[in-house]
Amino acid sequence: MRALLAARDPSLSATWTRALGERGHEVTRAGAAEALARLADVRPSLLIVERVPGSDDAYALVRRARQAGTRGRLGVILLLHSADAREMSAALEAGADDVLIGPVAADTARAHLAAMEWRLRPPAEPAPTAGAMGMRWEQFGPAPASPPPVALVPSSAAPAPGASRPAQLPDAEVPLAALPEAALVFDDMGLVRAANPAAEHLLAPAGASLRATPLDSLLRGDTAGGALHRRLRERTWEGGVAAERAWARRADGAEFAVELRVARLGGADGSSRWIALLREGDDRDAREAHAREAAKQVAIATLARAVVNDFNNTLAAVGGAVETARRALQAGDQAGVERELAAVRDAARDGARLVRRLRQLAEPPASECRPVDPKVLVQDAATVLRRELPPGVRLEVQLDHADWRVHADPEQVCDLLVALGLNGRDAMPGGGTLRLATSRIGAPQAAGAGGPERPEYVRIDVSDTGRGIAPEHLPRIFDPFFSTKPHGAAGLGLASAYDVLRNHQGGITVDTAPGRGTTVHLFLPRTHAPALALLPADADAPGGGGTILLVDDDPRVRRPLRLALEHCGFRVVEAGDGDEGLDLHAQTPGVRLVVVDHRMPRLSGLEVLAELRRRDPALPVVLVSGHTQAELLGGGAAPRPDAFLRKPFELADLARTVRSLLARAV
Fold first, then answer.
1. Which of 45, 161, 299, 655 is geometrically suited to a Cys-Cys bond with 481, CB 3.0 to 4.6 A?
2. Does any domain span residue 560?
């Protein structure tokens, strides 16, 4: 397709030029004023326009393009710099098919282009009537005096044998007003395109219109699962009618339960719209839903209190250790300084562990599993627990897994063992024994652990001699936020354990009784693959050489990374964003390796990586992110970095990674 790109911002222009080229489009670039003059000779199928703040040239260009062509032959994407509702409405009124806010990554641009190409494809079956949106109605029986009941038939469905084919009706002729129920028509961006009087009366403030209002601001789902309009769109894309409970907000601000019926409507030009019919739910449904919502709010408040307490403890530990280290430095006590700095490091690790557990509960991350010796998992957890246990609690470690290895995410499993160990500690206020043990288990013994059968497992036990769990509490021990502890307990231990073991294709069982303690059995699948060899502990010692390009938009993060790399003997060149990083790479001879953060303004780390691969495929690149590698890269065709470090990480890990890559490149 021919594409006309009118973007003044160099970064926007570069991103969209690249995305259009990668999808095989012929690109013509021009300013908004020049693009007006070039519409006739370019005759684009795609028009991408940046709306410069304070100027209406973009809207004028879109209107002129619409006057010159039809929606079926032209797709318009309008790029805004803010999420102002009035600007979005103006963009849609001008004729935009798609609206994007702010700078977007290249993969986002490609995704929106793919969706636009799908809309512009020739229709499989021409409709008898042109229009921006089509709708099918089927009426049963003779027409009654009152408005008839309506059955929705999605546009992809074929008519029943012997039945007449329903007509395609254009936007302006859809008889929404005849419906006794509130009805909304929304597009694939979730914006309301039409509403009948019943919906306006129910949902719109006096004198206001629902047109161009985001559907998600009018309705919210009764359950979690992302934006409501996207979920409804996905469920009805291939046809059929979706039914779902939701909450609506009246014009007076009061919320009430509704039952939704949603179907996709086929347009004569290949575009898509969806119709939603709203029916108020009964009082019992509303009461039950409100009770669930209230219980969730109580659980979140409980979690918030626990998190505040844990983070305050972490901050107190950091602040106290820093002040003590300052005094030790003034007194010339080098050992005291090192001791307090180690305390700061440990507190930072505890804070990072709490964040990982919270994030895992909100949205369980993909596990980054690899072959690992269970001894490493248990010993790392024991190191953390020894700092947390009071004098009256004794820690025992017993290893009986021989040379068996497991396929596991070391970070997730270690965090899990620590969380379960702290649960055991809290169950022994008067003191006792906490025990970590490993053993080898075959499939028949592990099959009842809640996971798929595998030939062999390594079982890791976390045992305490505390008060045990009461029988009435056992059915809820894996529920998020549930806890038998008083006052502010988060209730994350067993809930996160369940998710982690499920992701590892393992299992979990609990053996407990009041007065005789609790043992949690974790089952991890055995692997015969060799464990990954670690670099020696002194891999961060001085002795490196050459130039490293460090790209990160946060100077507080860049500084310690730069100092660590300089300590290893490297010359470090710093860049504050992706564009600057690419410029420095081009201007700096002899760059041996690049360390780049993913989430940055203008260009993301993955976009920088793609350009570096184009320039020099052999250049080692380390990608840094707070997300897991699986979440960031998925199964797509994006270039893979040579190494990946997930924040927060130890500076020694960075040094080891850099040395390993450079040694491999020699």
1. 299
2. yes
